Amino acid sequence: MELLPFFEPVHVDLYFPEDKHIGSQLLVTHVWFTNEEKEPDLSNIDIAFLGVPEARYSAHNEGCSTAPNEIRKEFYKLFFWKNEVSILDFGNLIPGKTVEDTYAILSDIMAYLLEQKVVPVILGGSNDLAFANYQAYSKLEKVMNMVSVDSKFDLGNEKDPISSEGYLNKIVLQQPNYLLNYSNIGYQTYLNSQADIELMKQLFFETYRVGGLRKDMEEIEPIVRNAEMLVLDISAVRQSDAPGNANASANGFYGEEICQVALFAGLSDKLSSFGIYEYNPMLDYNTQTSQLIAHILWYFVEGFANRPNDILFKDQDQYLRHAVTVTNALKELVFYQSKKTGRWWIEVPFFHIKTQQDKKYFLPCSKNDFDTACRDVVPERWWRSYHKLNR
To answer: pTM of the predicted model, to two decimals?
Structure first.
């Protein structure tokens, strides 16, 4: 697939005049840029940056279409990582005649990159671009899990057109459907209707309030570890830390907390795409939000550079098996702990309809889930997954 015709390349000298290059900065050590003459060789590329200046379906935050270049200005000032990682910045996608055209182009490009084992990172743009991200997996017919870091669910109404505050229902209702699970990290109850909160429970989707997660940020790690796709709406960050957003809230994650989420995302061996949306430079103060997003990207790549590769259970000897008998469970609960990283999984049995066979799903979990089972209580994470897989 030829990619260059769809992009406006990055004009590097606009960010870094030649006489100001610093040898150990990202620009000259780990990042490559496309040009207008030659298709890039993806064989040695780990991550691809895709600027997407699309905000026609944004909810009162149209200025986020100018975000990609402002993010780059701050990101390329940062210094490189200890471990090798190769990034290719394609530049900015040329928007389609309609938003739907942009979705189609973007999803085709992302599907191609996913096939090439390159992790695409979207620099948005509005949050509805997550729909195009999902469509990439749909085109590959790949069943996937999605995590959204957002103060709202963005469910929307089935009868309303898609928007940055109403795209999730379009994903859920699309047929054939490849969404196995959706998790929201950081929602704020007063920004979501009780009807939407109840619907999330009925769909067995995972939802985590920002206040509850703040008590133990480590609980975010297994949520993210189970996802192929992560969507980050910058409005999940409190306004005082990220003012560049028309829908920012007085509450939300702190800057260092959202960087920790990005680190967990990078560390996940399973996660294969990442998008940051809704940053509006017109509302920013002293580049505060663009700096934070640059740090978020840095921590994501830092995590990627240190991926432990312990998710596929290729070598059973590298895991400790713990079987726990719980009174209300159908059978004993089986946990696995990686000897390499200390990370945990729990075994979820289910009946595979197509093959007519009993199967096992290895669900990422935490040490707290194991401790809960040892107290003779079935972990909520296990119940939710069991009901979803055996519906």
So the answer is: 0.94
